[in-house]
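Key result, reporting period 2: structure in, sequence out.
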């Protein structure tokens, strides 16, 4: 039997850990149940941190962990999923093709930044969506120091006033000062189409965010969007033109395109609709998890967000359940009633909220310490020690806050 997992992000990593854990509990050997993880590199990109400086350091190796738990790593990118024949076709690093059959499949392909067809965005926009994107932005920022302090050199526009946009914007003043010098006349401006900053965070946390932006000197343009970009800067839908050499696009994400190959229903974000055990209804042997799945967290109408916090726990349930079906043991319905947010606010600290109504629990330096602990410890892979790694993937305990 073979269980194939597509993706080495948070959901894919925990799917592998959890499936291997159940295999161990059931006393089944890797020869009887092979668990194979397919990804371009055996590396976890710590995506929630890509707004920070030195993005090239924000990865964690996975090969030793996978070897410790007897998970086969297959290097390559899945190009095709053939659900009728239970086969995935993999493009390998050497431009060859490889067919891999599966008895159960876990789609953990994550998400991608949504880039609309705005004039000039592809040519002039940056992002912190992927490791390559974040590295390109970091190099660009350092390159600004070699340019004359004119034509908007010291101005950064962040398009999108949601979670990612706020973290990128509030980190930017310190990054710019470090690169351009303390006397540079830097400007950071968030452009948000909604009438309020952080539209999804609600009214409770908003005063804390607004206070932090004011403290850091971050400006906002609300009720306006980016209409076009060119070499001179950005033109907003309001008609305002802002000179800048740096535009960071942070306005929404969508499930990775591979989900479109699964013949099933998807939501407006491209996520596959799944049942409570994270199966894709009507498609034999296929589970979806993380940002690739729209999953109910509880019986109260809350659904998993496209976030690391939800992806890790969803991955653990998906891996466990896919293995459980093959091993003939009961599956476990996914549930995730606890929900917190921890928003980095740069030198203004951080904001920690609890619950779906986002009740403010910590702010400032206290919340910043929690954010740093999350970013440097909680979201990293377990140590490459078999017992500890397997123990970390109990679905009922992963991301139990």
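The corresponding designed sequence is given below.
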């Amino acid at each position: 039997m073979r269980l194939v997992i597509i993706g080495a992000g948070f959901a894919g990593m925990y799917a592998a850990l959890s499936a291997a854990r159940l295999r161990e509990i059931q006393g089944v050997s890797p020869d009887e149940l092979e668990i194979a993880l397919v990804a371009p590199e055996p590396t976890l990109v710590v995506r929630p941190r890509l707004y920070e400086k030195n993005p090239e350091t924000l990865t964690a190796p996975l090969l030793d962990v996978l070897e410790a738990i007897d998970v086969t790593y297959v290097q390559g990118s899945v190009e095709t999923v053939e659900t009728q024949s239970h086969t995935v076709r993999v493009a390998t690093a050497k431009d060859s093709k490889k067919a891999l059959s599966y008895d159960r499949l876990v789609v953990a392909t994550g998400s991608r930044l949504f880039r609309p067809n705005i004039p000039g965005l592809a040519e002039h926009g940056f992002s912190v969506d992927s490791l390559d994107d974040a590295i390109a932005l970091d190099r660009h920022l350092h390159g600004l120091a070699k340019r004359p302090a004119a034509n908007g050199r010291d101005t950064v526009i962040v398009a999108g006033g949601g979670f990612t946009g706020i973290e990128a914007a509030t980190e930017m003043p310190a990054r710019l000062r470090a690169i351009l010098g303390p006397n540079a006349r830097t400007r950071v401006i968030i452009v948000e189409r909604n009438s309020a900053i952080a539209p999804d965070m609600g009214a409770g946390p908003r005063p804390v965010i607004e206070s932090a932006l004011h403290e850091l000197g971050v400006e906002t343009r609300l009720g306006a969007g980016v209409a076009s970009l060119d070499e001179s800067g950005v033109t907003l839908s309001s008609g305002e033109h802002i000179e800048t050499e740096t535009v960071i696009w942070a306005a929404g994400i969508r499930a990775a395109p591979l989900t479109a190959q699964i013949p099933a229903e998807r939501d407006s974000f491209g996520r596959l609709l799944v049942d409570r055990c994270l199966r894709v209804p009507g498609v034999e042997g296929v589970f979806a998890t993380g940002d690739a799945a729209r999953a109910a967290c509880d019986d109260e109408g809350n659904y998993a967000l496209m976030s690391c916090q939800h992806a890790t726990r969803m991955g653990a349930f998906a891996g466990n359940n896919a293995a459980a079906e093959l091993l003939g043991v009961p599956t476990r319905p996914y549930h995730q009633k606890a929900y917190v947010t921890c928003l980095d606010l740069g030198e203004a600290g951080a904001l920690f909220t609890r619950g779906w109504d986002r009740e403010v629990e910590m702010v400032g330096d206290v919340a910043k310490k929690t954010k740093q602990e999350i970013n440097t410890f909680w979201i990293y892979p377990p140590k490459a020690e078999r017992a500890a790694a397997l123990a970390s993937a109990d679905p009922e305990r992963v991301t139990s806050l």
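The chain has nine helices and 25 strands. The first strand starts at residue 2 and ends at 6. This case is discussed further under Risks and Mitigation.
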